[in-house]
Each structure stands twice: as C-alpha cells, then as structure tokens.
Batch of 2 targets.
Target 1
Amino acid sequence: MFLEDFFSHIKNQYTNNLPFVAYRKPNDSRVKAMLQNTDALYSTQGFEDKGFVFAPFEDSSQTVLIPLEHSETKCCDFNSLLLNNSSQNQIKTDETDKRTHVNLVQKGIESIGMKHLQKVVLSRCEAIPFSENQFLSAFKKLLQNYPNAFVYCWYHPKVGLWLGATPETLIHMSGNRFKTMALAGTQSYKDSLEVTWNTKEKDEQQFVTDYIESCLKPYVNHLSVTEAKTVKAGHILHLQSNVSGVLNASLHTILKKLHPTPAVCGLPVNEAKAFILENESYNREYYTGFLGELNVMETTSRNTNRRNVENNAYHSVKTVTNLFVNLRCMQIKNNQALIYVGGGITKDSIPEHEWDETVSKAETMKQVLMS
Ligand SMILES: C=C(O[C@@H]1C=C(C(=O)O)C=C[C@H]1O)C(=O)O
C-alpha cells in the first residue's frame, strides 16, 4: 500500500467518527493501523483478547481495546516523508504554570522529608492552540522526528484523540519470554552520549530497577538486569536498564505488578499515587497509562539471507504483546493540544530544575505542532 493511501484511510476513519490506531514500533520501517468497523467501545478484562489496548494511569475500568476481530488492518512501509521540518517553535511557557509546578514539586519534596515516600513523579498539562484537522500532519512529523520511539495516533469518538512518541517499553512478550526496562533520570542532549549523571538521577533510576526486579522475581525464571546506560529520546537523555526473563505467570498478573512503575508514579507506589491524586490539579487520563499490541500473531522468517531457498520456508509464528508507557504524548481536544509532562521528584530535587525538565520534555510534542 502507498503511504498516501494509508493516511487517507486514517483520515476517512476519523471523518466517519470511527475508532482507529496507527502506530510505528521503535526502529521499525513499517507503520501499521487497526481500523475498527463500528464505534462500539470495547474493553479488556483479563488481557487475553487480541488487538490494541489503551489503558489509563488510574482507573482500569477505562481500559479500551480495539479488537482485531472487529477491525481492518493496514500496513505500509514508512521511509522518511521528507517533510519540511525546519520550523523552530516559539511557544512560550506561562509564568503562572511555572509557579504552580514549582509549588507542587516543593510540596512533593517536603512530603518526602516527612513521610516514608522516597520518590513521587509529578506532572502537569499544558494547552496549546491547535486545529484538530491538523492531527495527521503532527503524526507524520512524529514518525519522521522520532525513529527510535513508539509513535502512535489513537482515536475513539467516545474517548478522544491522542498522539505520542514514547521512549519507554512497559512490556514486550514473545511466547513466555519478556523484556521490560527501568527508564528514569533526564538531562538535555548536547551532541554527546558521554555524560555524567548526578546522584539524584542515578538514585531515581535505581529505585525503578530495584522495584521492577523485586516485583517480577516471583514470576520469572532466568531474570537478567543490565547496568544502567545512557539512551537518547529525541533531544533528551535518560538512564535505562534492560530487564528480561521467562515468565511463569499470566500477562494480567504481571501488568498488575508493573503498572504504574515508579518511573511514572513513585515509591512506595500506593503512597506516591495517593499524593499524585490529591495534589496534581488535573486528571492524567491516559498519560502515564500504557498502550500497544496485545496478543497479536507475528511471523518471523528465519534464514532469509541463506542461498538455500528451502530454508527460507521456515517461519515461526508467535503470539506477541508490545506495550509502551504513554509518555511524551498529547490529547487533541476543543482545538487545543493538551501536552502532558512530568518528572521524578526525590529528596535531592531542585524545583526550578524540575520545571526546566518538563519544559524540555514538552518540546518533543511542541516541535510537531507548528506548520
Ligand atoms: C514522567 C515522564 O517521564 C518519566 C520520568 C523520567 C524522569 O523523571 O527523569 C524519565 C523518563 C520517564 O520514566 C514524562 O516524560 O512525562
């Protein structure tokens, strides 16, 4: 299928108020779509269904499924669209927003001093004027600008229109093998991956790694955890450890343990969540929730570079799940782009720096909003 046809299917689906998702996995050359046949609102209870799942931060009853059995699928090669991407955006941040966020972070730091809270991830939502019918152009720019992110555009007429380019895997499963990551700590990218990390960032990333390791241990054989490495996400750097193993429990059991991780909520999880719900003055909805392919069949052909063509006939078909944390995302609503950004607060946080971090993260979306 040609790229233009692919995008016009998506446009028609949106014009007809029908649910869809279009997405490209990290470092993949294909962009895929699931176009639902009706506007029914499906959900998944046990994560055994096949399709594309879209789950919120907090209320699991709002988990939406685009079921494979009620959708048409499309796939297309995505090689750079050669968009004119030179626009430097001049969207200024607001002083009141800054004061509100700095106060919130200050309150978080004080709570960490008083209670046994170790880390809390605090966020905000910034509204930018943006015409809804420009969403495809923003999606194309996300695809082009962030090749190693999971880039998506998700729509349901009864829920909303969301776009994002997230660097964070929640869980990848192929058969019973799984991979996840502990991603935390942020600094701006300045032409090099050879950077030093402060204790604050190292600690907050280690909290996440330790938490993931301890909560998965009872359900995993051959658990392996790598040293934290610097990774690049757009113009931002993070610290990342990879975690992998073989699961001896259901996906649902693991998701209940993993979501929300201390990377997007805090530690201890319940205390951090209570602090967030009480003190963030808006509803995160699907930001810091998760999304992705659920139990879909994937065919991998082996030996494709061998001369012996008979070997090329060997295919392995596996059930795979590829879920990502919904970060670096926005909701398009009432001709506004609502950009969601946050960061991990520890006892060593400096409120002004935490504000700067959210400004820098918001750039990931602002870059694609200008025409
Ligand atoms: C909460 C966000 O990102 C998370 C928080 C990070 C941090 O505190 O350094 C880094 C990556 C993510 O795990 C966000 O992007 O909004």
Target 2
Amino acid sequence: MISEQTNVHSSEVTDPILSIQNASVTYDDGESYVLNDVSLDIGRNEIVGVVGESGSGKSMFAETILDAIPDPGILEGRVVYRPDGGTEIDVLEQSDEGLRSMRWEQISMVFQGAMSSFNPTMSIGDHFHDTLDAHDADRTAGMERARELLSDLYLDPERVLASYPHELSGGMQQRALIALSLVLEPDILVMDEPTAALDLLMQQSILILLKELREKYDLTMVFITHDLPLVAALADRLAVMYAFDIVEVGPAEEIVDDAAHPYTRALLNSTPSLNAPLEEMRPIEGQSPAPINVPDGCSYHPRCPLATSECVRNDPAFETPSPNHAAACFHWEEAREEIALNYEDLLEHPSERPGGEDR
Ligand SMILES: Nc1ncnc2c1ncn2[C@@H]1O[C@H](COP(=O)(O)OP(=O)(O)OP(=O)(O)O)[C@@H](O)[C@H]1O
C-alpha cells in the first residue's frame, strides 16, 4: 500500500472531508493504468467539478471514492473520509459490511441515466422504502425527509412517490434519484454525469437545485462531467483529468478565465458557443491515449502545440500559477500567452450554447 503522497499539488483545502491519496487503478495484471497516482482533497461543503474527455478516467475516480471499481480492476492508494467531529475513516480498509452502510448514509452516488438506477417494476415510493429498510432507518421519519427532498427538487411528492419510473420524464426521474440518494442524510454526494441525458435547460435547472441543496443540507459534492462550462457554473473548484491523471486543479472561475494547462485551454476552445464564430471552434486534434498506450513524459505531449523535448522525456510536476491553482505543465506561462481562449461569457450565458433549446 502506498502511504506517502508523492503527486501532491498546491490546490490546498483547509478542512478536507475527503482525501484521495495516490489512487491508482490497474487492469490486465497491472498492464493498463486507468487511474494513475491521483491525489485530490475535497473540502467540507465544497462543490468540486471533475472534467475531461471521454475515457480519461473520470468514472474510475468517482468509483475510487467508494471503493467500487468494477472487477477485476485493482485499486491502490488511500481514501480518507473525515466525518464532522468524528474519527477518520480509511475507506479502502472497510469491510464489505462497513462499505455497504457507508454508501448512502455517508457518501452517496448518482449515476447517469436514472432509468437504469430504478427498478422499472417498483414505484418510486417503494424505492425509498427499500433504501430506508436496508439501512434500518425509521420509515416515518425517512419518508418525511423524502417528501421534503422531493419538494426541494420542485417535484410533487405524493404524485412522484406513487409513480413508476417510466411514468416520469427524464428530468423528473433524475431529480427523484437525487432525492433518493439524499434520504439517508449523507455528507457527500458523488455524481457521475448525472445530467448528461437531459436537455440543456433541464441540466441547468438541476444545477441550480443542487446549489440550493448544498446550502440547505450542508452537503459536499463531487460532480463528474465531460462538460466543462456546465460544471464551471456550479463548482467552486475544478479538477481537469487527462489520460487517467489530474493535470490541472484550481478555482472554477480562474480555470475558465485563464486556464494554465494547454489541455484545459484546448478543452475550453472545443466547447460550442454561439458567441464564438464557428471557424474559431477547434476540436482537440489527435486522440486521447488508451490505457495500455500512455506516452512517456507528459502524456499530453503528442497533442500539445507547445511540446518540447523536455515534455517527451519528463513527467511535469505541478506548477502553481496562483496559490490555490496547480497545473502539471512545463510551459504553462507560454500556454497562457500563446493559446488564446476563443469563447466568451460561458459562465454568464451557458444557455446560449448551440443545442441549448432543443437537445
Ligand atoms: N471494467 C473495465 N475493465 C477494463 N477497463 C475499463 C473498465 N471500465 C473502464 N475501463 C477503461 O478505463 C478507462 C477510463 O474509463 P472511465 O470510464 O473512467 O472514463 P471516463 O472519463 O469516465 O469516460 P466516459 O465519460 O466515457 O464515461 C477507459 O479507457 C476505459 O476503457
């Protein structure tokens, strides 16, 4: 087991509720890394957005938090959970029983596609009953909380509890799933692409509701998505993943205004925006590496316009563009000067993105 943090960056958190330390996930007897020595602290009551292209390891990161890596993946490293006023819990050292009670009661997860999370033959109310019963929670108090949560999410509690999943729209299902994930009063909500199947207006209203829930229930949230501008409007901090590792982390506003890693700048420039002329929209050239084929040195170097022989040879350590902002790039200063950002106002006007109305 790895106990020392070797890949630390300076995006520091004063009161971390969760520390992921040197987490690695391998398949094929260690041949392919799908998470490579990732460390991140999550602050109490913070919303952290984890972003990156498809296949960059975001889901592996989410699953690491609850020791839920699909078999036969091997997870190494440490995940420390610090309940408010309680003793530290080493998540990866928990027994199956310990993990079972921790999931939902302390750390809850919501995945993309509510339809596949709900049992189609059970009403939404039965899902709440089952969850409360499985954790020996008081049904009366639990259902009272369920009704309150459903109202917080602008759903009619009685109607939704009596409905079967297919009787609800996609947006209603996803909100009901968020309510279900919060019914046992967890401290932390981890969401993996929770709004990806929804139209942009519904995505945005769910994000506003999540912010309200964070305030009301003192929640900490980890929101995983490929959609950087979407989560930038919600998150306090962003962590950007490339090729199974975090390459940049910092305050959301700072990352959107002036990202320091060439990959993050490319990701921002590849975002559709009505404000930017079409010819300025640049998809990121090349392909992100497969797990068995991660380049030596900086893994982004084959796609990076600023790469030098140093980037081919050496893995860059984290640099600190500002005290709470870290980027693993030898050339972050040049990146800021030479890779112009071509979008505007994404934080203020996310609905102006193409597809915002009718996706
Ligand atoms: N069960 C598995 N066995 C082996 N490799 C896997 C398994 N699940 C995922 N992977 C690989 O792990 C890598 C990271 O996958 P992950 O799902 O974490 O990416 P992601 O960033 O969440 O992508 P997406 O947005 O497409 O879900 C991918 O290359 C994927 O092919």
